[in-house]
Write a structure and sequence with these properties.
By secondary structure, the protein is α/β, with parallel strands linked by helices. It is built from 18 helices and 21 strands. Helix content is about 40%, strand content about 20%. Strand 14 and strand 15 form a beta hairpin. Helix 7 runs antiparallel to helix 9, helix 13 runs parallel beside helix 14 and helix 16 packs parallel to helix 17.
Length: about 500
C-alpha cells in the first residue's frame, strides 16, 4: 500500500431511509473515521450529535435541479476509484486536495414502493447518484467498503470491531457482489415499469383487424401516431392486414417522386408506376403498364385528384385509393363504389423510423433506406454516353426498383414502367419476367433497365440488348463489373453505376 498517512479515512453516507444511522455513526466515530454526507442526510447526522461535513461544501458545488444532481462530481468518483497501491493514482488524487473515501453507505430512492399510476413521482424516484456511487465503490472493492442495504449494517459494525476500524478483503468483495445484485434488481424494476407503461400505451392504441395475411391468422394494428392509416380512412369497407401492407409500401415508393406520380401496388410490389405533367396522365400510364396486375390493386397518388379522374378510376376495379386532400366533389364520385377504401394521405408522413421484423429467437432491426437517387449519384461506366431524357428514365427506374422486392429488374420509358420483374431467386429470372411483361404491351418500344443490385453475368444484358434496351443502371460491386462494362462498350449500351445496393426483402 502506498496511501499517504495524512490521507485520513472517511465514510460517505447518502441514504433515503435514515433509520439506524445512530449505530453507524457511533462505530465510525469510535474509530476516528470522518463522516461526509449529502444535504438531508447530513442534517440528520448532525441532529444525532455527530460531526459531519456536507459534500457540497467540500466539492464547492451546491446541489442543483431540486436535488437531482448532488453527488455526481469528478472529485467524489476519483476518491472512490483511485487505487491505493498505485503511486501514480495516489499522487494524482493528492493533487485534488479531497478527502479519501474508504466507506460508502447508501440506499436508494424507493422506486418500487411508489404507485404505478403516479408517473411524475415514479420518474423522480429513479435514483441516479446512489447506484452510481455504489457501483463505483464496489468496482474498487480491493480498497473501498460499500454497504447498500440496512440488513448489512450489523455485519459491517462487527467487521469494524473485529479489524480495529477496517474491513477484510473477503468482506468487501462479498459486499460488492451483493451491491451489484441490488443495483441490477433496482435497474430491472425500472425497466419493467417502462415495459408495463409502454405495453399499456400500445394496447390502448391497438386496433383489431378482421384477420391477418390469411383468414386463420389473428391480427392487430398498433398506432404510433395520430396521423395513421386508420384515422385517415374516409370511405369504404374495413381495412385489411394486406391493405395496410400495400398502402405502406405504396407510400414509401410514392415519396421518391415530386412530380405528379401514380403508383399501383399489388401483393406488396409496384405493378405500375408513372410520372407525368398531370396526375390524370400519370394514372393512365401507370394503369397501362400492367392492367392485369392492376386489377383489384391499391392505387396511390401524390397530387390531388379531381372528379373527372375519379370517374375514370371508377371504371376499373380498385381495392384502395390513396390521395392527398380529397375534396367533397371527388369523394362523392368515388363513394359510388361503396366498398372502395379511400385514404386521405395529406397527413401521412414518410416513415423514417427504425424497421424491425420478428424472426426466430429475436428481432431484426435496421434503418430505413432513405438514400436519395439523383443524377449526381449516377456514374457513367461505358464509353457510350446517354441523352438527358434517357438518364431521367434511368433515375425513374432506379427509384421504382428500390421498392420492388428483390431480386428486382425494372424496364421503363418516358417515366413509365413497361415491365417489372420482382422477387425472383435469380436476377436472370427477374430479367426474363420483366421482359415477358414488356413484350405483352410494349414490344416495339425502346426502354431502359434498372436493377436493385449488380448483374453478376452478361446473360441478362444479352437478353436486354435483344429487347430494345438502350441503357442500363445498376449498383456496383461485382467482381464481374469489368465484364459488364466491356459488354456494354462492345454493344454501345450506355451503362451507369450507383454506389449503394437497393435490396428490399
Amino acid at each position: 500500500m502506498v496511501t499517504r498517512k495524512n490521507l485520513k479515512s472517511n465514510a460517505l453516507i447518502s441514504v433515503y431511509d435514515k433509520s439506524h444511522l445512530t449505530k453507524i455513526c457511533a462505530v465510525l466515530s469510535k474509530y476516528n473515521i470522518g463522516i461526509i454526507s449529502t444535504g438531508e442526510t447530513a442534517k440528520k447526522i448532525t441532529s444525532l450529535g455527530y460531526k459531519c461535513r456536507e459534500i457540497s461544501k467540500i466539492t464547492k458545488f451546491k446541489e442543483i435541479l431540486e436535488g437531482r444532481v448532488k453527488t455526481l462530481h469528478p472529485k467524489i468518483y476519483s476518491s472512490l476509484l483511485f487505487k491505493r497501491d498505485k503511486l501514480e493514482h495516489v499522487q494524482m488524487f493528492e493533487k485534488l486536495n479531497f478527502p479519501k473515501i474508504d466507506f460508502v453507505i447508501a440506499n436508494f430512492y424507493p422506486f418500487s414502493k411508489i404507485s404505478k399510476g403516479d408517473k411524475i413521482q415514479k420518474i423522480e424516484m429513479i435514483d441516479i447518484g446512489g447506484p452510481s456511487m455504489i457501483r463505483s465503490a464496489s468496482k474498487n472493492f480491493n480498497f473501498v467498503t460499500t454497504i447498500c442495504s440496512q440488513k448489512y449494517y450489523s455485519s459491517f459494525i462487527s467487521e469494524l470491531e473485529k479489524n480495529n476500524g477496517k474491513t477484510s478483503l473477503k468482506f468487501r468483495e462479498k459486499m460488492a457482489k451483493e451491491n451489484f445484485k441490488i443495483t441490477s434488481e433496482y435497474d430491472l424494476s425500472i425497466h419493467k415499469w417502462f415495459n408495463d407503461k409502454n405495453y399499456k400505451t400500445a394496447t390502448s392504441n391497438k386496433i383489431k383487424i378482421k384477420y391477418g395475411e390469411n383468414p386463420n391468422q389473428k391480427a392487430f394494428f398498433i398506432k404510433n401516431t395520430k396521423n395513421n392509416i386508420f384515422d385517415n380512412q374516409i370511405n369504404g369497407k374495413e381495412i385489411s392486414y394486406n391493405n395496410i401492407l400495400d398502402i405502406s409500401e405504396g407510400l414509401a415508393c410514392l415519396y421518391e417522386f415530386s412530380e405528379p406520380t401514380c403508383v399501383i401496388i399489388k401483393h406488396n410490389n409496384p405493378c405500375g408506376v408513372a410520372s407525368s405533367k398531370s396526375i390524370r396522365k400519370a394514372y393512365l400510364k401507370a394503369y397501362e403498364s400492367d392492367p392485369m396486375s392492376a386489377f383489384g390493386g391499391v392505387v396511390l397518388f401524390n397530387k390531388k385528384i379531381d372528379p373527372k379522374l375519379a370517374k375514370i378510376i371508377n371504371k376499373k376495379f380498385t381495392e384502395v385509393i390513396v390521395a392527398p386532400e380529397i375534396n367533397k366533389k371527388t369523394l362523392n364520385v368515388l363513394n359510388l363504389k361503396k366498398n372502395l377504401i379511400i385514404i386521405d394521405s395529406k397527413n401521412l408522413k414518410q416513415n423514417k423510423n427504425i424497421l424491425f421484423k420478428s424472426v426466430n429467437s429475436g428481432l431484426l432491426l435496421q434503418e430505413q433506406n432513405l438514400t436519395k437517387i439523383i443524377k449526381s449519384k449516377l456514374k457513367k461506366m461505358s464509353s457510350c454516353a446517354a441523352p438527358i431524357k434517357i438518364i431521367d428514365d434511368l433515375i425513374f427506374a432506379l427509384k421504382v426498383s428500390k421498392h420492388v422486392k428483390s431480386n428486382s429488374v425494372v424496364l421503363a420509358k418516358n417515366k413509365q414502367t413497361l415491365g417489372i420483374g420482382a422477387g425472383q431467386m435469380s436476377r436472370l429470372d427477374s430479367t426474363k419476367f420483366a421482359i415477358m411483361k414488356y413484350r405483352d404491351r410494349f414490344k416495339n418500344k425502346k426502354c431502359v433497365c434498372a436493377s436493385d443490385a449488380f448483374f453478376p453475368f452478361t446473360d441478362s444484358l444479352k437478353l436486354l440488348n435483344k429487347n430494345n434496351c438502350v441503357a442500363i443502371a445498376q449498383p456496383e460491386g461485382s467482381k464481374n463489373d469489368p465484364k459488364i462494362i466491356d459488354y456494354a462498350n462492345k454493344n454501345k449500351i450506355p451503362l451507369f453505376f450507383i454506389k449503394n445496393r437497393l435490396f428490399k426483402h
